[in-house]
Specification:
Blueprint: H1 13-34, H2 51-57, H3 60-92, H4 100-107, H5 109-112, H6 115-133, H7 139-162, H8 167-174, H9 179-207, H10 211-216, H11 224-232, H12 238-265
Helix pairs in contact: 2-12, 3-7, 3-9, 7-9, 8-9, 9-12
């Protein structure tokens, strides 16, 4: 007699899943462990110490690059989330029409095009503006990160809008609420978890971007990822592990905070 096939029981899937998780997270665990190594080797354990965290904390270049990364990521995340929210409202709160699919593809274009292509395009675009205006500040990096982060913020916001029931918005319209009143009192509170998700994702993407930053930045505008890349080309010390561990904890903290906020909103 033939045995019944069950999609829930697949031979070997557990083993494959374990291998994948080990391959993904074992390097991260090793990185964190060796951040507490007392020696200068990243391969030989010489005892527990916090010396590399202290050294990174007292490194002015690390502090400067970290604050610059946080400023750029914060500004880019806010601008990208605002633009993504408006785009999501424009593409979901409307009847289907010809060209709507093209708009989806246009908004998500940075996800489909290799990042190096986007970086070269931004380099050419901003270099002309630099020559014409003489300005070479952080504004270019913020705009470049914003353009790249918009689709990352757009996806969770659009998903949230598509999953929302239109009954309350229609009821508000029936009660003579203006479009702005409906958005402020009905749509925005329901959409808030999606906006937070988009903001968090855009912030993390901007924080660790290397390719676009390397192409667009001017002299003396290293972010923490580009600073670390430059240091790795010279000498690898556990100081890089310590910096990576701090930013890993920052990312975990952001995700944990969002989890509790979204749970309260639901």
């Amino acid at each position: 007699m033939a045995r019944n096939f069950s999609i829930q029981r697949q031979t070997g899937f557990t083993t494959i899943a374990v291998i994948c998780f080990v391959a993904l997270y074992a390097p991260i665990v090793i990185l964190v462990v060796y951040a507490f190594n007392s020696g200068s080797s990243i391969a030989n354990w010489e005892g527990f110490s916090l010396r590399w965290f202290a050294q990174a904390w007292n490194n002015n270049q690390v502090i400067e690059a970290s604050w610059r990364s946080l400023r750029i990521a914060s500004a880019a995340a806010v601008l990208a989330t605002i633009a993504a929210t408006m785009a999501a409202l424009a593409t979901t709160r409307t009847a289907p029409y010809r060209g709507l699919t093209f708009k989806y593809a246009f908004i998500n274009q940075p996800l489909m095009v290799p990042e190096i292509v986007t970086a070269v395009a931004l380099l050419i675009f901003f270099s002309r503006i630099k020559v014409a205006t003489g300005y070479s500040g952080l504004g270019y990096l913020i705009l470049a990160h914003t353009a790249f982060c918009i689709p990352f913020a757009y996806l969770p916001i659009r998903a949230r809008l598509e999953g929302m029931d239109l009954t309350l918005e229609r009821a508000a319209a029936d009660l003579y609420a203006t479009p702005w009143q409906t958005f402020r009192r009905i749509t925005l509170p329901l959409l808030w978890p999606g906006i937070l998700a988009g903001l968090m994702l855009a912030f993390v993407i901007s924080l660790d971007d290397v390719v676009i930053t390397n192409f667009v930045k001017s002299g003396g505008q290293d972010t923490l990822p580009t600073y670390m890349l430059g240091q790795l080309r010279r000498a690898i010390t556990p100081e890089m592990n310590a910096i990576s561990t701090v930013f890993l904890l920052l990312s975990v903290g952001i995700v944990t905070l969002f989890f509790f906020i979204s749970r309260k909103q639901d």
